[in-house]
Amino acid sequence: MTTGEPSLCINGCGFFSTPQTKHLCSKCYNNFLKEESARYLDTIRDHMETATEAGEIKATTVVEKYSEEAVVVVKNKRRSRCSACNKKVGLLGFECRCGHVFCGSHRHPEEHSCLSDYKSAAIADLTIQNPVIKAEKLYRI
Description:
Elements: E1 7-8, E2 16-17, H1 26-54, H2 62-78, E3 94-95, E4 101-102, H3 118-129
Antiparallel strand pairs: 1-2, 3-4
């Protein structure tokens, strides 16, 4: 077979394949990649379990990392609406110190009954940024 000629998929599905996809059509190649990645994750999980049983590694497994990323995606979906009026805010949502996201009309603390104490937080920031400096006492001669 030469590289210039199209060939049929080796799985026999009837579609054309390329040497770059290991003589598989695009659909069969995607299925092959999914199966290969699942086998790879299984071997990693097995190695991690044997290592943790031996007491060598205390790290999280790859599967747990993927589940954490899925949780982050769910949190980003929740941010797409205003907490006060449930209006879609998309990328323009304003995040308050209380941890909620609001639209343009509810972004101010007095508009959404914010529980954060801005005054004491500002006073604490100013005391940290501007410490009291006292000079030594001068004696008159």
